């Protein structure tokens, strides 16, 4: 539900990110299926994506398969690893652009906060998890027609913030959804007692810095697993070729 609406609040020219998830998921399924079953059956045809199947089908089961028109399973894994490495480098080089996109995303989400329950839940989760309010601060909620401070705004939420901006009281078991009412009419020092005053963009950057070792460890661990899979696939194909050559 959230992903189906992301295209309306992202600056991607109408591209729906759901298609990206579907394509990546499809590729992962095909690679996983071919690698798993190919390894279990010791079948090079499943460890390779052959571009000319008719030539392979003409072989007898015990004849070495001509793999000249084939792309190794490990080559596909290597290509995926290269794309991931490239994405990581680009993310580091264009971190300012990513920051702008995150700012654009949050601000657009703020504007549409009451329009879609999925987006509303997404922004509430973000603000609660990162203990933030708005993209750069609570005043960003002026962009929402229900929370802005204009005199023409008849909403009871005028000059307020969503409950997800409120600092939680450990003694409260039930969420007070009205805790942010009129809070932006108060001075900054008083706001700090009741709501988060830091923006989500800055809190996200701080979260990345605080968890840099964990994030880097996950990426390095994933990369090592992929490299290990590439080596195993190459070794298995070589062993199968050696056995077939003896036949």
TrEMBL record:
Disulfide-bonded cysteines: 132-165, 133-149
Q: Taxonomically, which superkingdom?
A: Eukaryota
Instruction: Indicate whether Glycoprotein appears among the record's keywords.
Output: yes
UniProt-listed SUPFAM superfamilies = Tetraspanin
Give the UniProt subcellular location, in the record's own words. Answer: Cell membrane; Membrane
Primary localisation category: membrane
Task: Name the UniProt key words of this record, in alphabetical order.
Answer: Cell membrane, Disulfide bond, Glycoprotein, Membrane, Transmembrane, Transmembrane helix
Q: Where are the transmembrane segments?
A: 18-40, 73-94, 212-237
What the entry lists under Pfam families is as follows: Tetraspanin
Q: What are its GO cellular component terms?
A: plasma membrane
Give the way it sits in the membrane.
Answer: Multi-pass membrane protein
Q: Which family does it belong to?
A: Belongs to the tetraspanin (TM4SF) family.
- UniProt protein name: Tetraspanin
